[in-house]
V-set and transmembrane domain-containing protein 5
Amino acid sequence: MWPLRLWDAQEVALFLSLTLYVCHLAGAISIRSPQQSLTRPVQQDVLFSVDISCVGTPTIQWTFMSGRVSRDIGAWQPGGFTNVSEEYMDRVHTYTNGSMGLSDLRIQDTGFYVITVTELSGSSKDEGFVLKVEEVLYEDLQYLAVFAVGLASLAGFLMVSMWLMDKAYCRIKAWRQRRQMPENDVTDLQPL
Ligand SMILES: *[C@@H]1O[C@H](CO)[C@@H](O)[C@H](O)[C@H]1NC(C)=O
Ligand SMILES: *[C@@H]1O[C@H](CO)[C@@H](O)[C@H](O)[C@H]1NC(C)=O
């Protein structure tokens, strides 16, 4: 009796979880993204690449978040409307697979980007991306290096000149002392 009842319970549980899984699959929105953490230099472009699968035509919405700031970037439907906020109008590119391109990056674009996919049924799913926009320091560093080398050479030159001048001064002093010595002897001797 006992083993049979246990088997029944297990079977029921399995059936239930399988049913739940299938139901879940039917209403599931999947957002696949190859990379969710991106770093780009200033003025370059970025593509938040996603591939969505869901039932029917989804509504795609992208939101920007940084600290306490939360901004709507835009929303669109593949083959339907496209509504990009004025702020991003000339920098945002929308794709039917849900991806969003952002061009002419600025430091202030650093932050979180969230895509929300909503099905007609009302169920939705989010996926987050992190973008870091970096200042290009390379050229500045080159100038700084050249400046530092120039400054170091100047300092070196000044040090060497001072050392040479000091030596020359000592020599001249010694030479003058040596030249004055006989004269002194003469003047010393004169009264005699
Ligand atoms: C989505 O579409 C864009 C443009 O066609 C493409 O570059 C990108 O690779 C696609 N993303 C995925 C994850 O397939
Ligand atoms: C477009 O977006 C703005 C603000 O982001 C919103 O007020 C407006 O209702 C949207 N229009 C459509 C057609 O979705």
